[in-house]
Protein: ABC-type quaternary amine transporter
Organism: Brevibacterium iodinum ATCC 49514
Amino acid sequence: MTATETVAAPEKTASPMLSLDAVARTFADGTGLNPVTIDVARGEFITVLGPSGCGKSTLLRCVAGLEIPTSGVMHLAGRKVFDAGSDGARAVNVPPARRSLSMVFQDLALWPHMTVAGNVEFPLTARGEKIPASERRRRVGEALEMVGISAKAGQRPHQLSGGQQQRVAIARAVVDRPDLLLMDEPLSALDAALRVQVRREITDLARELGLTVLYVTHDQEEALSMADRVLVLRDGKVAQFDRPAVVYENPADEFVADFVGTMDRLESGLAVRPEQVEVAGLATDPGHGTAPGTEATVESCSYVGGRYEMRCAVPGAPRPWLVHSRDEHAPGTRLLLRHPGA
């Protein structure tokens, strides 16, 4: 595999839940979101991945109606919710409260003066629908039970842990069963172990409710593990949009290859993932002189749990290779590495 290999764009999704046609947002300084054209199927979980400033949050805000696109057309659940009015079409901009979507913000945005139940109930009253109090209580109870915090219904947000506050925000977002759930780096404030637990809960809940999700993250592992498809953005442009395995194993370009995981490279153009590299033995062992492979010199070796992670100098490589090994090798050790293309 080389980093310059490309993959075909995903086919158009029949009857998509969300459809963006050349949706763009340009700011005064020239930055923003370049025309994005994607279809998202009903019940699909899409992670939006990219470095800071690439347009991830701008994309979500445009879909939510919190940011007005400069151009393009947007449909949600078969209904046109935005049209910039180009090509003689009538301009359309459906307000956020009427777009049948919910959003979980990075800072959660919980009302500090309300109880947990009050926060979760808020969307049922804010949209102007006349829902009987008994029905609101039923929906709130159901949402709290789904995220496992029914016992906290009468408490205030400041009385909860970070993970519990996160679950309140999720319950509030799903209480009225939106057509689309938007999540903007919702787990960034949680510690590593809790992040893994909550992201599993989010994907389980999305499958259980059949939710369509657009989930922004800068965490590559999070993006790959949660998604049906990954949308990679760079400088406001779509770099790749495909299944996690395709994005990882067949990156569209060098940026995607390096951003989604790590690539070991040679100047010849060869690029392999660290897990494709095997330590065949010591380069000084008898018989290895004629064996196929790549010689490398260990620069550093660290134990990372279950394996060692080494940085190795490789002749013809623009930077040290990352190599995994079950055994510890001291700096200065010369190894023979086997990998595709060796």
